[in-house]
C-alpha cells in the first residue's frame, strides 16, 4: 500500500544525531493567522523552535522522505522551488527545525513572549506564541485591487473607514511581516479608483495596507473585493460568454429540462416493450366420468408452450408445441406421443392492419423524442436570455456605483477646500454647510447604488453554479469588465438573414410540427377503428410420435362489425379539430417570430441611436461642469451651480450606462429570438 507522503513522514522513525537542548518547552506555533496543531506539539529551547510535520501544508509546501531517510524533500514556495530540510528528534518525536523552514521560505521567526532583560532573552515559558511570518515583498495596486506578494500565502481581510473628508479602505494580511525598506508602489498613472496607498505593521503578525480613495475602489458587495491573495493576479473579468457557458453546463433548471428530455427516450423504450416476444407455457390435468361406462373415470393431460410476437403492423406470430395424452376430451384433441409442433400467424386485414392501439402509442412515443428536444431548446433559449439580461443589469449596477463614488469623492474634496477657504475668510460659512449637505446627499446616492448592485449581484448569482451542484460564490464587482462602445446598428440584410434563420431554427415551430404529427397518428388510428374487423388465422403444424397424425393445419377467419361508429367518429372529429388548431397556432407562431425578430432589431437600432446621443450629452455635460468649476475658482460662480453641473454630469453618465446595458440586452434578445444564443 502506498502511503501519503505526510503520513509516511509521521510514521517513519529517524534517529538523527543532534545536540539535545537541556530543556524543551511546549509552545504554540502560529502561521498564516492560525495555530498549527500536529500529532506532536511544537517545542522550543532557548535557541530554537521545533515544529511538527503538519507545518509543511500550512505554508503551502509538499514534503516527501528522501532516499537517505534523514531529510525531507520539499517543494513549493514563491517562486516555486525544491530543497531539503533536516529531520531531528526531539522528545523521541520527528520534527522540523523552524529556522531552517524559515530560511527556505524566506520567512521570519518571531517569539514576542521573550522579553529582553539586561540584554538577555527570557527563557521560553509553556504556552508562549511563536510566529512564522511571511515576508511582504511587494505592495501595489493593479486594476483597482491590492496585490501583495509574500514569501508564502497568507489570508487577507478587507474593511472600510469613512471619515468626513475622506473614504479609505484597507486590507489586512494576517501572518505577515513588513520588512524595513519595503514600501508600496505608487498608484498607476490613470488609476481611476485609488489615490494612494501605504503599508504598516499593526500587530506582531498583521500587515495593513490602507488605500485613500477618490473614485470608489471599494466593492458595493463588500470591501473584500479589494483584497487579492498575495502572489496572485486579480481575477479575470466575468464575461457574458463565461456566464452563458456556465449556465448551459450546470444550471439546475436546465439540467432538469434535460432530464425531462431524456424521459421521452425512456418512454419510447417503454412503448417498444409492447412488442417484446412473450413466452407462455401451461399444463392442465382433467379427470371426468366415462360417457359409455358407468362408474368408470377417465383422465388426460394437456400441455402447451410457445413464443408469441406482436408486430407494430398488427400481425401476431406464434410458434410452439402441444402434447395431449390420455383420454382426451373436447375441446382438446389428442396428439402423437412426441407432441404437435406448429407455427401460426394472425393477420388483420382491415381494422388493426398497419396501425393499432399499441403501434399508435409507439409512433407517438417516437415523435415525443424530437418534441422533447424542441421543448428543451425552448427552455434553454429562455434561460440564456434571462441570464444575459441579469448579467448586463449587474454590469450596469456596478458601473453606476463607480459613478456615485466618483461623485461623492468630488464632493468630499470640495468640502475640504471650501472649509479651508471659509476659515481663511474667502467664502461665507454657509458655503461650508452647503458643501457638507452635498456630501450627505451623494453618500445617500452611493448607498442606494450599492444596494442596487447587491440586488443585481444576488439575481445574477442564481444563474451561477458549480459542477458539484453547489452555488458559485457571489460575483465580485472587481470582475465587472471595462466599458466598451456598442458594436453598432444592424444592417437590413442582416435582419432579413436572421429572420429566415429564425423561421428555420426556432424550437416553437418544431414543437408545433411534432405535435401535429402526433395528432395525425390519432387521426389515422381513429379512421382505422371505423373499419370492420377481419382477421385471418393460419397455423400449419406437424403431429409427431406414435399415434401422430402427421401434417396439420388450422385456418380461420374472424369477423366483427360495430353497428354504430360513434367512438371512431368522435375520435376522428377530435383529431381533426386538434390538427386545425395546431395549423392555426403554427401560422400565428411564424408571424410572432417574424414580429419578434423585427422588434429586437428595432430595439438594437433605436438603443444604439440613443446611446450615441447620450454619449454626446455626457461630453457636453463634462464641458459645462469643467467650465462651471473654472468660473467658481475665479469667483464668478456659486457652489450651488457647481453641484448642479456635477449632478448633471453624473446623471448623464448613469443614463449612458443604462442605455448601453439596454443595447446589450437587446442584442441578447435578438440572439434568443433568432435561436442563435
Strand order of the largest sheet: 1-4-5-9-8-7-6
User: What name does the CATH topology of the largest domain carry?
Assistant: Outer membrane efflux proteins (OEP)
Shape: flat
CATH architecture level-2 label of the largest domain:
Up-down Bundle
SS strand fraction: 25-35%
Secondary structure: number of strands: 25
Please give the share of residues in helix. 40-55%
Q: How would you state the average pLDDT, rounded?
A: 84
The name of the CATH superfamily of the largest domain reads Outer membrane efflux proteins (OEP)
Please give the count of helices. Answer: 11
Top CATH class of the largest domain: Mainly Alpha
Largest sheet, in brief, is:
7 strands, antiparallel
Number of domains: 4
What is the CA-CA span between the terminal residues?
51 Å
Instruction: Note poorly predicted spans.
Output: 1-22, 215-225
Radius of gyration: 43 Å
Structural class computed from helices and strand pairing: alpha+beta
Question: Could you give the topology of this structure?
Answer:
Elements: H1 5-11, E1 25-26, E2 28-31, E3 34-35, E4 43-44, E5 49-51, H2 55-58, E6 61-65, E7 71-76, E8 81-90, E9 93-97, H3 98-105, E10 107-110, E11 116-117, E12 120-121, E13 129-142, E14 145-150, E15 156-162, E16 167-174, E17 176-177, E18 194-203, E19 206-213, H4 240-250, H5 252-272, E20 278-289, E21 297-310, E22 316-326, E23 339-348, H6 357-423, H7 429-461, H8 492-505, H9 507-529, E24 533-544, E25 550-560, H10 566-633, H11 639-673
Parallel strand pairs: 2-13, 13-17
Antiparallel strand pairs: 1-4, 2-3, 4-5, 5-9, 6-7, 7-8, 8-9, 10-13, 11-12, 13-14, 15-16, 16-19, 18-19, 20-21, 21-22, 22-23, 23-24, 24-25
Helix pairs in contact: 4-6, 5-6, 6-7, 6-9, 6-11, 8-10, 9-10, 10-11
